[in-house]
């Protein structure tokens, strides 16, 4: 009993057009008459193998050689393909983390923001400076944020709550101190964000960051402009939604204006 083209589509998900393509490029023998074609067990195995090899990135010419050339070194070919797929996986993971960082921060790093550099140089820079999911200081926070953002307010069970509490234990305590400063600034929103009292609190926040983040990677980077750019986390991206839960929408806008003013920036510049 043979297998019809319809059977191949219904059971294997391979269309009539794809089967004809396999014939056209020489992976399957052509149907020499106009009658409906049936495939035998050997054909089905061959079709499945072709689909799989194409799926992992083999070219048509490679598959033809594998099927027809007894001298074809498949072990070397598959080892090379594994190496290529691992490299592609790493690149895809990097871009996925970039995309999630952009979604979280609401900001896309540009040449004007990061300074003139070639794109390959930017990728290296971004791996070290801008990928929150690969940053030892930010990664625990990002795990918590991802989990919180994925859940509805009343959609938590005890196990998930315990997981979040456990992850919170690994978040840098310096971050919690910064939340305290943000709360103070938010509570001062009846004042002008540019007044001396509010700006003094922002300056204390700045001094806290300089004295606390002593790792070499932060040397010379925690400038007033750096503080000003932090305003973006209160008005853009998923992180702003998390901050709204802590300080309210008006509080976030006030904090953003206060930070931006301290750094000599305007919100529209962020």
Structure commentary:
The structure is a single chain. The protein is 64% helix and 1% strand. It is elongated and about 90 Å long. The protein has a two-stranded antiparallel sheet with strand order 1-2. With 270 residues, it is mostly helical. α5 (74-105) crosses α13 (237-262) and α11 crosses α13. It starts with a strand and ends in an 8-residue tail after the last helix. Among the domains are: 3-68, Multidrug-efflux Transporter Regulator, Chain: A, Domain 2 (Orthogonal Bundle), CATH 1.10.1660; 172-270. It is built from 13 helices and two strands.
Give a quick precis of the structure.
The chain is mainly α and 270 residues long.
Key descriptive features of the protein:
single chain, 270 residues, Multidrug-efflux Transporter Regulator, Chain: A, Domain 2, 2 strands, 64% helix, 1% strand
Give the rounded overall mean pLDDT: 81
Order of helices and strands: EHHEHHHHHHHHHHH
Coarse morphology: elongated
Calculate Rg over CA atoms: 28 Å
Taking the sheet with the most strands, its summary is: 2 strands, antiparallel
How many beta strands in the DSSP annotation?
A: 2
* SS class: mainly alpha
* First and last CA, distance: 68 Å
Strand ordering within the main sheet: 1-2
List the helices and strands and how they pair.
Layout: E1 3-4, H1 5-12, H2 16-24, E2 38-39, H3 41-55, H4 60-68, H5 74-105, H6 111-114, H7 119-129, H8 139-149, H9 158-168, H10 173-187, H11 196-212, H12 224-229, H13 237-262
Antiparallel strand pairs: 1-2
Helix pairs in contact: 5-13, 10-11, 10-13, 11-13
